[in-house]
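W.,

You were right to be curious about this one. When I first looked at the sequence I had no strong expectations either way, so I just let the prediction run and decided to look at it fresh. Below is the sequence, 555 residues in total, followed by the output.
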Amino acid sequence: MRSNINKYPRQMLIALLLALSPIIVVGGINYAVDPLQIYRVQRFVEPRFWNDQRSQNAGKIRSYLASGVYDSIILGNSVADNFRPSRVEALLGWQKTMKLTIDGGSSSEQAFTLEKALKNGKVRHVLWCIRADNFMGDFAEEWHPKRKMPIYLYSVSPLDDAPYLLSIDTFNFALDLLRGKSTWSNDPDRLNYWQSEKHIKKQLKYNTPPNLRDLFQKASNTGCRARPDTSGIYPNVDQNLLNLIKKYSNVEFLILVAPHTRQSLASFQSDKLARYLGVQRHIVFASNTMKNFKMFGFENKDFIVGNLANYRDGIHFHSGVNEYMLQAIKNYLNIIKIENVDYYLSEITEKLCNFEINSNFEAMIPLALPEENKAMERALTSQRVSYLLQQSKAMIKQKEYEKSIAVLDQIIERQEVEISLLAQAVAQRATANSHMGNFMKAASDYDQAIKMTPKHAWLYAERASTRLRLKDYEGTRSDCHYLISKWPAYFRGYWLFGNLKVTEGDLEGGIRMLSRAIELSPSSSRIYADRGKAYSKMGDHVNAEMDFKMAKAMR
């Protein structure tokens, strides 16, 4: 009896261990691999970094900054993402620099991250790019309404690690790292750096004439009457910025006010702009006795904020603006002090009184990297070509075929045009030549366009139609066979093949093909008309008359 009693605890222990074994395995692997590098710099695999800054910054702080190798940090939200640590080190003479930006980061989130980074006592320099409108609130505690800050990752208490160690997401990240399948970045210098061809396209879209007109209409121009709010009641600024500068007096703080576009500031109502300007004035006056602080501002610079070509929206400037501001900081330019803050802020408001929309890519600040400038030039070329293609299309519609061809020749002669746009230009020229009766030239252009972009059914259909006009029946047949085999649901292959068969005298075969085309495109009057002609040639005047009536009704 006693032996049975002793056996039960052992069985229960074994059962408990078996039940907990998956949790133990997951927790053990997560701790050993440590994908976010919370406990140590990755040692089993090449260090990689997640682009979720709220989570990844915890690992940067607890493993990298704590090591003492890094003595400088970059802080801010997405407006600071394009500051590369390597450039900060090179221009400002700082040692190893770590970027701790937070996309959409509120003032409280940035302050929380900064204090965690400063607590280890290793950081000596902070470059903090702030949005003054993030610090305008009446409440000191302001967190992002949707993106939750994983505060437990920043805690050194082992009891707070359970959500990380027992997470299936962490486990999957760890497995991806071990299997070499992780898509995370291995370059901390370019981590969260968003300047890319995708954002260049956003930049161009932001600067299109329709959008510029909308932006101008949104500008109230009431800001020129605004004066900075001098109430001195800015709890958000006091708690999330000034308290940290004062508390860590051995750390150098370079505060950079991210420049809004002049249009963006012109869209502010007077009371909002007064508060916006008041934030900057309050920072300068309240920090007057702090020797570890400098603030830089650029919103009085026409060539930056007055040229929308530098931006992809009202606040996000391109990488070249980041580079320019770093150069200015290096040379101690654009510093805002008690002696000049009121004049600086008055310059901003005065320039709003005579506000005009300006978008000039030729006068734009160059982007930070050579490859980015090449990408910008390609994008601008594509934009110009797209505009010329629209012009040409309108000319064809107005039957100005020679003018259209002259415009298209300009595009085709360019060497730097992307292949898809070049193919469009060649195809449009073929269309213009076809309307003018130059079918040989049109067929040659369709040949070129198909070689450039062979996956467009309509090009084969246009060439087949042109070949049919040239009585190149074998060429027409070849295109029709390809169209029907490659795109069996595309009606034009059957339509053209039907007309070819009728032309060659195969009336029954032609009617079958034309009937199939009608099944696929029952609202096309021209196909009914062509089938009516085929019926008429066969002597079937009843069906011919029905098709002609259908065609007439659809026109």
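Here's what jumped out at me. The longest helix spans residues 2-33. And, maybe more interesting for your project: Residues 206-363 form one domain.

Coffee later to discuss?

I.
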